[in-house]
Every structure is written in structure tokens, then in C-alpha cells.
Amino acid sequence: MKRYTLQLSYNGKHYFGWQRQPREISVQEIIETALTKLNHTHPVGVVGCGRTDTGVHAADYILHFDFTEIDNLEQFVQRLNRMLPRDIVIFETKEVAADFHARFDAKSRTYRYFIQTTKDCFNYEQRHYVHVPLDVAKMNEGAKLFIGKQDFTSFSKLHTDVKTNMCDVTSAKWVQTSEHELYFEITADRFLRNMVRAIVGTLLEVGIGKIQVADIATILEQKDRGKASSSAPGHALFLWEVKY
To answer: Which site in 85, 134, 217, 240 is 20 to 30 Å from 33, CA atoms measured?
Structure first.
């Protein structure tokens, strides 16, 4: 057996997240089913670089799997793409060291959350429409307070199975791409469940003047999910890049 990686993208609209679910369809299940059909001998399991929630997308996702030796990697990708639905696209497969781990070897992950401030009948499925003016400068002031290694309990889904809520955020900023479009980009060594959406929801409240920039520091210190704002919807969130 050899160990391989797949680099892929997926549109999360029709899936209940990346991770296999007992009663709901997931991206992981679809890929494992296709790989098992190609393997012929035994079921193939995959390990992803991280979880994404229901409806969340991935522009750059890495997974690893163990497989019998693949003679032609390019042809393997073509065959796999023909088997997969149109909302999952494989770009490349590579042979890697036997001890490579898609999740634990990742050095950083970057997410982007896309906002639209005017009604749009084409991009609405992957943009969060905000119908009130936003103070982007203040939102960027607030974003800076998330940078550094700190406890993100206030921005994590409750009752998760992680051992620590400490994350090291190296970059957090809002980028205005046009008069009516912007995105939030955040990079860290790891993310907690619902963390990015909770951060975005809180920064949007800064942008509309509902809370102040200084309130973010207080929310972080309180380590209480109930103190942060509601999470932004999942349909506008993308896992954007993973670095090793």
C-alpha cells in the first residue's frame, strides 16, 4: 500500500459538512465511496485536513488515503472526477511519505467569508447579503484583536471534543474588493467548530455600530459563547488555503 494525497474543491451547499455522518450525506462519504469503487479489494478511508460545517465550501482542501500503487496519477484523477458529482472537483493526487497526515501536518489554514452589500440575484448562494452600511475601518480594528495565541472559547461551538480552545491566529483582516463586495480573511494554526462564523458575526455587529471595538477584548476574556454575537450563515464561508 502507498499513501497519497488529493487536492480538491467542493461546493458544500448539498452536504452536511465534510465529516461522515450517520444519517446525513457528507463530502467525505462521497469521496470514500468513489475511491472504494476504484480500489476493488477493500474499503478506502480518507483523512481530511479539517472539518467544515454544513453548507460551508472549500476552495483548497487536502486529504490523504492509503491505496494500492497507482500507475498513472493523472489518469487516476480523471477517472475519479468522472465518478464524482459536479460539486466536488479533484485537481491533483500525489504520492507522499507513509507517515504524512493531512490534518496534523498542516501548518496553517486560511478561511474567507464573503459579504455583499447590494442585492444580487446571481452570487447570493455564496455571499452573505448585508443590507445596512458597514464601517469596514472599525471592523478591521476589531479584527486585529483576534491576532495572537489566545483562548477562543467565546467563539467556539459548545460541547465539542477538543482538548484545548487555544488557537494561534497570525492574520485577520477585511478586504474590500469593490464598492459592494468584501471578504474577511483569517489564518491560524487551527480553528474551533463555528469559530470563523462567530467571529464574522461579531465583527459585523461592530460594523453596524451595535457593539464597540473594545467589546471584543472583553468577549475574548469572558470565555463564554453566550457573550459573542450570533454566527454568520455558513453558505458564504470558504476554507481557502491549507499550508504544510
So the answer is: 240
